[in-house]
Amino acid sequence: MEKKVWAWDLETLDYFTAYFIDVNSDEEKCFALGKDINQIPDLIEFLFSEVRGLVGFNSLNFDAQIIEYVMDNPNCSAKDIKNLANTIIKYKDEYEFIPEWKLRHKHLDLYKVHHFDNKNRRTGLKWCEFMMDLPNIEDLPENYNSLSEIISYNRNDVIATKELYKKSRGMIDLRNNLTKLYGINFTNASNSKIGSELLLKLYCNRTGLNPKEVRNLRTYRNGGIYLNDILFPYITFENEVFNSFLNMLKTKIIYNTKGDFKYTIPFKGIDFEYGAGGIHASINGSLVEADEEYIIIDSDVTSLYPSIAIENKMYPKHLGPIFTTVYKEDIVDIRKENKRLKEKGNKFIVDGFKEAANATYGKSNDQYSWLYDPQYTLQTTINGQLLITMLAEKLIKIPNSSFIQINTDGLTLRIPRKYESEYMRICEEWSKITRLELEHAYYKKMIIWDVNNYIAEYQNGKVKCKGRAEYENIPLHKNKSFSIIPRAVHDYFIKGIPVEDTIKNSTNIYEFCAGVKSSYNEKSGRSHYEIWSVINGEFKKEKLSKTVRYFISKKGGTLLKIYERGGEEQVNAPYKDGKFQKDWRVTYFNKAYFSENFEDYNIDYLYYIHQAKKWVS
Question: What's the rounded Cα separation, in Å, for the pair 199 and 370?
């Protein structure tokens, strides 16, 4: 029998269930164990005869551990499995997990691939279901009554896992191809881990050092980091404001590389915000357009952090000067060459080496990484911010020029069209001093809320949306709620379409949906969501799933967030027609239904139009 790759998930309750769906067909398999059923022999036979690989979600440290136990203990009970599951959950920091390489099957864990185990990207499968517009976002009822309910819930999670697998094909192909190219198992590696491991291999290839020994290397800066020792000598300013700032920095000692560097410098009408992660500045709440007299130019440094490191011969102290050679010749130069060749180049080397080039800066401030040297981190980011400031100071001298925004690796200005050649001359002069390369783009218009939220239309008609302005292809760990609103705002500014027209002409119900999820904090405890409504004159409360999908409707109930330690607040309550009211109704939409007549949804367009107009104004 041909072995296949299956999406899968387990439930470890009073009944144990294991559900599988072939990733390349509609074939499904289900096995159960409980007081009146025992399909463990069939499950074990299936695992050994029909499974080539398993695709799960957060499965390496749970489902894979459980299934290994079942294969080792074919006479176990559902209670035994439940006890093991509870132990893994309760003692996850101390539990001795079976490592990936020892597992009987090849496992792909999409939770790891998407780096959802990072605290800043923490995302569950239910939220992915919301973000992917899946029709069923299902929680197991608290008082489930039957095996069939468990199986239905189990199956729905596997359907979601398969959909996420299909959506992740590009990421999976990258990992598979890099695994073949370099002999390192990247199957369940995050992008940052891919970069770190590639860099380690290439560094050890060049130096002949043992990777196990290099992994244990670190440079600690317990006595603090003297900024005067790491600032580039060619950084100079003409303006006294920046000169004073530079001289002040030369006296500073940094002990906490994640929080000790934070300054604000007002200059030419905007605040230059300096921080551990980079520089930011922006005009706010503005629409800026190019015309016959003025142009908008955006200039970004090509690969800012890698370029700074290479051009200034920087390296984590414990890795020595050879690290810079490896970084340049074995990673950055090879990536550039493959990228230049386009069709003939290796796409997977281009993408993989991009992660390797970016890994050094990020991992250099991670005490668990072999790249750890916080001085390298600060030398990169502080000098990067000052170099961008140097460029900004020079460009703003162009008559009648004005800043639009400045970010970590570049800046955007509006200048008189007649000074375009002067702008480029200044950029070339700056590039000669810094040895950094600039890429330029021209915008037709920019609609800016702040530095992190804007719409930029290029001269060629392409549009870039950032932050709150994004309405499509939003990363799964973010929030796409009410995506019809940013789309309506986009179409208003870019296409000249009234927001009412975009909103009322949409027939995609998911564009009107929002998502919220239960949470916990020390002050309020756990929270959950309820719909309060009056049906046939009777007041009712309905407790909802942990993840809730809903849309604003003319009929329905009131959505409230209920706090464990007392109190509640209405979701989407604040304003209607400019007044504080609490009468927005919602339709709970975790189980989507599709009506031939879109009007049957009873969408309250007033809410969406009001919000879009508020954005516009």
Answer: 10
CA 247 – CA 228 distance, rounded (Å): 9
Give the pLDDT score at 352. Answer: 82
Q: Closest Cα partner for 295 from 150, 438, 111, 459?
A: 459
Of 506, 450, 445, the residue nearest 289 (C-alpha): 445
- Burial grade of 78 (CB within 10 A; 0-12, 13-18, 19 or more): buried
Chain Cα centroid distance, residue 431: 32
Categorize the per-residue pLDDT at 346 as very low, low, confident or very high, splitting at 50, 70 and 90. confident
pLDDT greater at residue 48 or residue 142 = 48
Q: Is 482 helix (H, G, I), strand (E, B) or coil?
A: coil
DSSP state of 326: I
φ/ψ of residue 171, rounded to 5? -65, -40
Residue 479: closest CA among 565, 552, 393, 549: 549
Q: Which of 435, 383, 426, 429 is nearest to 401 (CA)?
A: 426
Residue-range domains of the chain with CATH: 4-167 (3.30.420.10), 225-305+377-480 (3.90.1600), 502-616 (no CATH)
Are the C-beta atoms of residues 243 and 371 closer than 8 Å to each other? no
pLDDT in tens, 420-442: 999 999 999 999 999 999 999 99
Vertex 350 angle, CA 345 and 353, to 5°: 140
Mean pLDDT confidence for 206-231? 95
The C-alpha atoms of residue 342 and residue 350 are separated, in whole angstroms, by 10
Give Cα 596 to chain centroid, integer Å.
Answer: 35
Q: What is the DSSP string of 249-282?
A: HTT-EES-TTTS--EEEEETTEEEEE-SS-EEEE
Q: Which two tokens stand for residue 117?
A: 């185990």
Burial grade of 461 (CB within 10 A; 0-12, 13-18, 19 or more): exposed
- Give the span between the Cα atoms of 459 and 455, in whole angstroms: 13
